[in-house]
């Protein structure tokens, strides 16, 4: 697993411009980015092809230009490096937004997010990222050098996308899961840009302020942690941003789990209204089942820690929970054809007594596989 993650890690050189970062990314992952762009166009844009893509990206491009302009330059670089049109490269940043357009609401995908925080400030934030099975094989890690004022980042992603989840060297980490029930808007900032915007911040306070300030294109739950032991989950959508209360503390560990059902936000969108009662119940049941199973696993580990929080191996607890396949609605789902499955998993650990304050980022590309530690790009 470590060799596979290393093979698919794109490291950008110090001093690279956003365009050069994107070009490096696009060139290194050209074959998979091209495959994804073609399949994504077939799935979501149909016969419209390039013309439909060019039209679809317009409002999202405008939001990115206002709030994360450097990411448009990365997309242009991806376009050149991968040999894609600019519109196709930009569409690779719009996974959730394309689901919303087709009213698929994530297509029943099942991301599960967790967070563990000890009284000492040590913490682990992690998730499974579930996507369509046809995206399997395009997993990658981007190790992007810092560019003042943005710190170095490590993001787990799919080929051609600027990021799905990750952390920066300043200690800010971000995980995310889709809340298809909440209202969306084409004038909002797409999820990939929100994630990278969060990771461009050097503190938890700045990251939280960013999430509260930007317009959101779709319903999401962003789990953010900071270098001082801070952690919060924000449910966001076109109509609101709501912070979710913290989880319970067990044997000195604060535990938080979020899945694909809404905990706090009262808003509802078109997809929730369009689905049948049976479909709504099935999705709700799946999400709540995963959340409860994950919380059960975390509680069991916390209660078993012989020395309380001081003796808890946060990385082992988090990776064990995210690798669980035992339940009827598993947290980690193996790829079977094109059905939704666990695309990758990520755990970020920091404040645990390591010599460096820089967080340790661990990624697994194979459902149920071992996690490999990734290194930040050199400054």
Report on this structure:
It is a single chain. This protein has 379 residues and is of the alpha+beta class. The chain folds into two domains: 2-101, no CATH class; 108-374, Penicillin V Acylase, Chain A, CATH 3.60.60.10. The chain has helices at 2-7, 18-28, 30-45, 49-56, 58-67, 69-82, 86-91, 95-101, 191-199, 204-213, 270-274, 277-304, 314-322, and strands at residues 9-11, 112-118, 123-131, 139-144, 153-158, 165-168, 173-178, 220-225, 231-236, 241-244, 249-250, 253-258, 341-350, 360-364, 372-374. The longest helix has 28 residues, at 277-304. The two termini are 26 Å apart. The model has no long low-confidence stretch (mean pLDDT 92).
Short synopsis of the structure:
This protein is of the alpha+beta class and 379 residues long.
Fold topology:
Layout: H1 2-7, E1 9-11, H2 18-28, H3 30-45, H4 49-56, H5 58-67, H6 69-82, H7 86-91, H8 95-101, E2 112-118, E3 123-131, E4 139-144, E5 153-158, E6 165-168, E7 173-178, H9 191-199, H10 204-213, E8 220-225, E9 231-236, E10 241-244, E11 249-250, E12 253-258, H11 270-274, H12 277-304, H13 314-322, E13 341-350, E14 360-364, E15 372-374
Parallel strand pairs: 1-4
Antiparallel strand pairs: 2-3, 2-12, 3-13, 4-5, 5-6, 6-7, 7-8, 8-9, 9-10, 11-12, 13-14, 14-15
Helix pairs in contact: 2-6, 5-6, 9-10, 12-13
How much β-strand is present in the residues?
A: 15-25%
Question: Which parts are unreliable, with pLDDT below 50 for 5 consecutive residues or more?
Answer: none
* Shape type: globular
Arithmetic mean of pLDDT = 92
User: Roughly how many Å apart are the termini?
Assistant: 26 Å
Whole-angstrom Rg = 19 Å
Q: Give the topology string: H per helix, E per strand.
A: HEHHHHHHHEEEEEEHHEEEEEHHHEEE
Q: State the strand order across the main sheet.
A: 1-4-5-6-7-8-9-10
């Amino acid at each position: 697993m470590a060799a596979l993650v290393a093979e698919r890690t794109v490291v950008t050189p110090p001093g690279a411009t956003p365009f050069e970062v994107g070009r490096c990314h696009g060139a290194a992952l050209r074959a998979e980015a091209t495959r994804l762009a073609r399949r994504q166009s077939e799935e979501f844009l149909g016969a419209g092809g390039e013309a439909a893509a060019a039209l679809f990206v317009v409002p999202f491009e405008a939001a990115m230009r206002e709030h994360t302009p450097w990411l448009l330059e990365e997309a242009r670089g991806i376009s050149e490096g991968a040999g894609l049109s600019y519109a196709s490269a930009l569409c690779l940043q719009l996974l959730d937004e394309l689901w919303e357009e087709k009213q698929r609401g994530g297509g029943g995908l099942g991301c599960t997010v967790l967070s563990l925080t000890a009284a000492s400030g040590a913490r682990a934030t992690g998730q499974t990222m579930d996507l369509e099975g046809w995206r399997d094989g395009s997993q990658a890690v981007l190790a992007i050098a810092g560019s003042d004022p943005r710190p170095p980042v490590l993001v787990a992603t799919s080929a051609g996308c600027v990021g799905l989840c990750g952390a920066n060297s300043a200690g800010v980490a971000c995980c995310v899961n889709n809340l298809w029930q909440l209202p969306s808007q084409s004038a909002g900032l797409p999820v990939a840009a929100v994630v990278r915007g969060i990771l461009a911040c050097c503190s938890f306070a700045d990251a939280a302020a960013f999430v509260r300030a930007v317009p959101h294109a779709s319903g999401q739950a962003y789990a953010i942690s900071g270098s001082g032991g801070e952690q919060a989950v924000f449910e966001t959508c076109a109509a609101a941003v709501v912070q979710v209360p913290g989880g319970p503390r067990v044997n000195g560990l604060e535990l938080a789990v979020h899945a694909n059902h809404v905990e706090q936000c009262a808003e509802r969108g078109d997809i929730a209204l369009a689905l049948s009662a049976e479909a709504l119940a099935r999705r709700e049941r799946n999400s709540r089942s995963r959340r409860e199973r994950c919380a059960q696993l975390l509680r069991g580990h916390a209660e078993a820690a012989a020395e309380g929080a001081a003796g808890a191996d946060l990385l082992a607890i988090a990776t064990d929970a995210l690798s669980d396949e035992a339940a009827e609605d598993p947290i980690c789902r193996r790829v079977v054809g094109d059905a939704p499955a666990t695309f990758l998993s990520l755990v970020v650990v920091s404040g645990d007594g390591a010599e460096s304050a820089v967080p340790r980022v661990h990624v697994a590309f194979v459902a149920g596989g071992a996690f490999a530690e990734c290194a930040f790009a050199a400054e």
